[in-house]
Specification:
single chain, about 550 residues, alpha/beta, eight-stranded parallel beta barrel, 21 strands, globular
Length: about 550
């Protein structure tokens, strides 16, 4: 079953979503209380950021026990109650699995460093001599000093692709691989339907300082994980964070779709923002074409913003600077010499036309949309907070106290209190009562997206038209959907031909308004699209009854 093809995935950080016991920290009891909000939007799956036991030196990506819930967020019983309530609403649960590294406080690492003869020694990567290339391959330039650190107790150097408190597991060790499968099986039994795999190119790399190079031996682990998860649960899904070039993606999916089900599309994502920054949709069209060829049952996960920085490393230096100039003009808005640490709303200057156009585009891209919590109400960021924490502030539920997030006097992460993005101005409660709010717009556009399986399941074509316009036709089982987006701040005359067959000139039935479009005598379609405008059409007269007013 390919349920993920037509679902909306909603990314949630348990810590900052809803506090259920009044201690200032989000938890599973609080999250369960807000499931009706998530269900009301139309979400089909919740993706949970790391919630396992952790010192939380890196927002939970430094795991110290893979078989538990961090006590700050509740108990295993609370987690099972949460997954059960999700199932009652038809919502699947996906979770982060961080296998590239553990916390240095994990018992495995403590055993590994205790003695060269300890059975866990080979679970990590050690070197008796100081490696020559200790500064190569750092993920966080400016925040890391090296990728090898000397441990006095072990009297050896250990490898860590990320921070020094996150030693890398030795993924070539069969015992480590077997343990990974046991961990997956444990959470599948507790109601999880899928996993977001962190840092996949580093998990399967055979050289400490390189990403995976494409050998069958490297990718065998992905096939093993897929086989195991689907043996335990036939509907389970593996979604990978793998920022690789398009030509490499086929190896991650597998030539016969035998490895990963889904991958985040890091090639298309930065080109979306380049289009909005410049009005030029050309690179976005090229990105979509380059990521077209994947196995039929595989799927791209399309996204605008996530819990990390907006990574612009796949753009040229000139393109990257144009995005910086428009969306992150101050140095403090940038991070790691490659990205932007801002939320979608402020990056688009709070312009509701651009925000809606961006999310309309997200819902119409070939693949599965992934929505970041808070983007449904247009939340902002707090640039006074360090690094990525700026975009991980608590969900803003109402205008009272701590924004409805907690009854405590202070939240674990400070809420945005002042300015146009403060919780007094931007919150769920106020937008719920306003029929023209962004929140209610989201419910309508997601409902429309779920009524159109052509986008999730079908093949797409990019229609040739003006440089500022992206027009895509999605076709599946004899029906077709056409979406048109304008990246320019000026109205544009749109002119295009859907196909060369003079006998096939269907009317375009507007699914967002009553402004339908008839073909001209020469077979061309012509109409004016608003600044940052968007249109969704059904090609043909059979669905006039589906036209709706937005």
């Amino acid at each position: 079953m390919v349920w993920y093809k037509n679902a909306i995935i909603y990314s949630v950080n348990v810590e900052s979503y809803m506090d259920g016991n009044g201690d200032g920290i989000g938890d599973f009891k609080g999250l369960a209380r807000r499931l009706d909000h998530i269900h009301g939007i139309g979400v089909g799956a919740i993706w949970l950021l790391p919630f396992q036991s952790s010192p939380r030196q890196d927002h939970g990506y430094d795991v110290s026990d893979y078989y538990s819930v961090d006590p700050r967020f509740g108990t295993l019983g609370d987690f099972v109650e949460f997954t059960d309530q999700c199932a009652q609403r038809g919502i699947r649960v996906m979770m982060d699995l961080v296998f590239n590294h553990t916390s240095d406080q994990h018992p495995w690492f403590q055993e590994s460093r205790s003695s060269p003869d300890n059975p866990k020694r080979d679970w990590y990567m050690w070197s008796k001599e100081k490696p020559e290339n200790i500064h190569e391959g750092m993920v966080f330039p400016g925040k890391q000093e090296a990728v090898w650190t000397y441990d006095k107790k072990a009297r050896a150097w250990y490898f860590h692709r990320f921070h020094k408190f996150q030693p890398d597991l030795n993924m070539k060790n069969p015992e480590v691989q077997a343990e990974i499968l046991r961990i997956m099986g444990f959470w599948l039994r507790l109601g999880v339907s899928g996993f977001r795999l962190d840092a996949v190119p580093f998990i399967i790399a055979t050289d400490e300082h390189e990403e995976a190079g494409g050998t069958e031996r490297e990718f065998a682990l992905l096939r093993k994980m897929r086989e195991f998860s689907q043996f335990r649960d036939g509907d389970s899904v593996l979604l990978a964070e793998a920022n690789v070039k398009p030509e490499a993606s086929i190896e991650y999916f597998g030539p016969s779709a035998e490895r990963l089900h889904m991958m985040f599309n890091f090639w298309v994502n930065p080109r979306i923002f380049y289009a909005f920054a410049t009005g030029d949709a050309g690179p976005l069209k090229e990105g979509l074409e380059k990521t077209r060829e994947i196995p039929q049952s595989s799927q791209w996960a399309q996204f605008l913003r996530n819990h990390d920085e907006l990574d612009l490393s796949r753009l040229t230096e000139e393109q990257r600077q144009k995005v910086y100039d428009e969306m992150a003009p101050d140095e403090g808005m940038r991070v790691f010499d490659r990205g932007i640490r801002r939320r979608l709303g402020p990056m688009l200057k709070g312009d509701q036309r651009r925000i809606k156009a961006a999310n309309s585009l997200l819902m119409s891209l070939p693949g599965t949309p992934v929505l970041r919590y808070g983007d449904e109400i247009g939340m902002g960021e707090n640039l006074d907070l360090e690094g990525r924490t700026a975009i991980r502030t608590p969900m803003q539920w109402d205008e009272h106290g701590q924004g409805g997030f907690t009854t405590a006097e202070e939240a674990c992460i400070p809420l945005i209190e002042h300015g146009p993005y403060g919780f007094h101005e931007v919150n769920v409660s106020q937008q719920r009562r306003d029929p023209e709010s962004l929140l209610n717009w989201f419910e309508r556009i997601i409902r429309l997206r779920q009524e159109l399986p052509e986008i999730g399941y079908g093949a797409f074509r990019i229609i040739e038209t003006e440089p500022e316009i992206l027009a895509m036709c999605h076709e599946w089982e004899g029906s077709a959907i056409l979406t048109v987006h304008n990246f320019d701040g000026q109205p544009r005359q749109v002119e295009f031909r859907i196909n060369e067959d003079e006998q096939e000139k269907p009317p375009l039935i507007n699914l967002l308004s009553n402004d339908h479009v008839q073909p001209q005598a020469d077979g061309m379609y012509r109409f004016v699209i608003d600044p940052y405008g968007y249109n969704w059409f059904r090609c043909g007269a059979t669905s006039v009854g589906l036209a709706r007013k937005d």
